[in-house]
């Protein structure tokens, strides 16, 4: 592929009928129990007239702590911790040797640097992942090839009159769960019940309709038909550097907006460790970067206990997942909780501070 050519499914030599290939692999994996699809209960909750999908997944509910556990003397606790640490199994990298039952295809087909694999524990059907074949850190800058292939996958769905939402979590406060570099994809048509008025938040980010979103984001429209890998990577770097500048300039308590010059690029760094946590989201028409300061937020429940919501890059699609029924019911009853959660996980959107 010439470096100046625009990104398409054909230019990157992706498999034909990729959406059908993913759907068939998902059906097979579900039938053979190679993956577990967890059911969710979904409601639409609005914050400042912006619709968010609130998802409750009962199977993710916290497991009760053993009642037999008792506090140990300090010297015993120390020995116990050391023993547990030495006996703890080494964390398995699920992307090092992907299961054949979940593996979809190498991408591109010629000289691949990435592959596609199904999510083993999805809550949305046909949730799949683009991972690097060789280990690369999730916290490093994305490379041109990462973004090229991700965009080509998005375009493959559009060519079939369908849509994907792509997201990437990087850093301790982003909702990231694996250190091996990977971008995730969700079919938009599978994300919400058909009778809701919800649409992906990313579609409105950058427009007036999204001015009530209480966290800061940076958005760029992607040119249609002429987008090269180089241009896509430059857009990513520009958005990310703006996000880094905003985090650096934001006050510690976030009670005042960041300074105006945070919207300028703060360095020309293009590789290595990214110094902030962030989420990236992408469709064929838009890319968004959201700087993150926390991976989640706690909130009081009517019972007097504390609930919690942890968010990853799907927040840029306009979805929030909770694991407990009381958390779900509390947010439905008081949508202001959702605004507080969204305000706490990133740099506060200065347009919403005094509303």
CATH T-level fold name:
HIT family, subunit A
Going across the biggest sheet, name each strand in turn. 3-4-5-7-6-9-10-8
The secondary-structure class comes to alpha+beta
Taking the alpha carbons of the first and last residues, their distance comes to 51 Å
Let me know the average pLDDT: 86
- Tell me, briefly, the overall form: globular
Biggest pleated-sheet summary: 8 strands, antiparallel
Please report the total strand number as a whole number: 13
The CATH superfamily name is ATP adenylyltransferase
Q: Uncertain spans, ≥5 residues at pLDDT below 50?
A: 63-71, 251-262
Secondary structure tally, helices:
6
Write the CATH architecture name: 2-Layer Sandwich
Task: Give the SSE order as H and E letters.
Answer: HEEHEEEHEEEHEEEEEHH
Helix fraction? 10-25%
GO biological process, one term: nucleotide metabolic process
Domain Ap4A phosphorylase 1/2 N-terminal: 15-189
Domain ATP adenylyltransferase C-terminal: 212-347
Protein name: Bis(5'-nucleosyl)-tetraphosphatase
